Amino acid sequence: MGFQEREVISVLQQIFATADSRLKVGIGDDAAVVATQSQSIITSDMAVEDVHFKLEWSSPFDIGRKITAANVADILSMGGKCDFLTASVALTGDETLQWIENLARGMKHEADLAGALVVGGDIARGPKIVISMTAVGNSSSPILRSGAKVGDGLYLSSLTGWSAAGFELLTREISINSATAEKALSEFSAPTLDYTIDFSGATAMADVSDSVLVQAEQIADASGVQISIDQKAIVQASEFAELSALADELKVDILQWILAGGEDHALLATGVNLPGIRIGSVIAGSGISGLERKMTPVSWSHF
Ligand SMILES: Nc1ncnc2c1ncn2[C@@H]1O[C@H](COP(=O)(O)OP(=O)(O)OP(=O)(O)O)[C@@H](O)[C@H]1O
Ligand SMILES: Cc1ncc(C[n+]2csc(CCOP(=O)(O)O)c2C)c(N)n1
Ligand SMILES: [Mg+2]
Questions:
Q1: What is the CATH number of the domain that holds 50?
Q2: Of 40, 44, 75, 133, best ligand 1 pocket probe by most atoms within 8 Å of the beta carbon
Q3: Average pLDDT of every residue of the chain
Q4: Which of 77, 263, 301 to mutate to test the pocket of ligand 2 (most atoms within 8 A of CB)?
Q5: Is residue 68 in a domain?
Q6: To which H or E segment does residue 214 belong?
């Protein structure tokens, strides 16, 4: 074992140090003390070694970014802003102090982008690395999955499928020297969140963790509507051609990546005249429609 627990805490204390006035008591006591808004949004998300990441595929910095992004995205998808994060980490003991430091630096990097503070966490030994984060955010008018209305459009904040493309390159051990392949690998290792998109006018929203199809179905079910996907509109998206070239090279169905791939953490929203990419419509009925029959997309499922 290359480190002591108190050394790790001391490194974390330095990395997450802040003079932000929202934080009253940070790392070092039994719990953090923070100034919350009158209505908070709370969510948790975890990443498990060999299920969400592999040590040979991703740097500790990217693993830290990815788990933080996954948590922050669940706050953004409620129409909220993320304020605080905690990070509970099981380590095997085979890591170096530097590996742990870089994991924390990745968390801090993404937390900074989100305007959030890492205020605490926990460390324990485990048979594999497991990272569980909790995020606390705020919104005076949260956007739920249940608000989609007939007549709304279905919008993506950015084109999905990049993370699935990176995952495919890694699992098939295909090495392609191009900016497109680089982008896919980078989006898999740590997705770029769409912090600037204004979906405040959305009637319903979810972040794409499992897949566009799974999340669209969740919105349809919660809202009591049908969501019709417009495959022709997806083809018009600005990044489609670039991703399509990579899909052709790998001989895969690009719609499998875009509609059934997960972990992009793009925002999927319904509403009228929203920004982003319009990929469908909300109509009367239930479930998902509009897919060409030949396509039977399978999305990620843990069990
Ligand atoms: N172990 C658990 N205990 C209590 N509630 C849970 C547990 N696991 C999930 N939930 C709740 O179930 C709901 C759906 O969770 P799920 O993790 O599928 O959604 P999500 O956070 O959008 O997805 P993702 O984890 O892929 O980001 C959420 O309200 C979540 O809080
Ligand atoms: C090593 C490795 N194998 C497979 C995958 C793919 N993967 C894991 S979880 C998930 C969906 C979201 O899960 P959650 O709902 O838990 O956030 C996907 C697409 C990966 N990232 N790493
Ligand atoms: Mg979510």
A1: 3.30.1330.10
A2: 44
A3: 96
A4: 263
A5: yes
A6: helix 212-223
CATH number at residue 169: 3.90.650.10
Task: Give the total number of structural domains in the chain.
Answer: 2
Q: Which ligand approaches the C-alpha of residue 205 most closely?
A: 3
| Mean pLDDT across 79-98 | 97
Residues around the ion ligand 3 (C-beta < 5 A) = 74, 207
Q: Which residue has the tokens 């020297």?
A: 177
User: Has residue 300 been placed in a domain?
Assistant: no
Domain range enclosing 99: 5-138
Strand locations in 167-209 (E): 204-207
Q: Ligand 1 centroid to 66 CA: how many Å?
A: 17
Tell me how far apart the alpha carbons of residues 98 and 60 are, in angstroms, rounded to a whole number. 9
What does the DSSP 8-state code read for residue 259? I
259, two tokens: 């509609």
Q: Where residue 181 falls among pLDDT bands split at 50, 70, 90?
A: very high
In a domain, 228, yes or no: yes
Q: Looking at the structure, do residues 169 and 278 belong to the same domain, yes or no?
A: yes
Nearest atom, ligand 1, residue 262 CA = 26
- What percentage of the chain exceeds 70 in pLDDT? 98
Please give the distance, rounded to the nearest whole angstrom, from the Cα atom of residue 157 to the centre of ligand 3: 14
Is residue 72 within 8 A of residue 135, CB to CB? The reply is yes
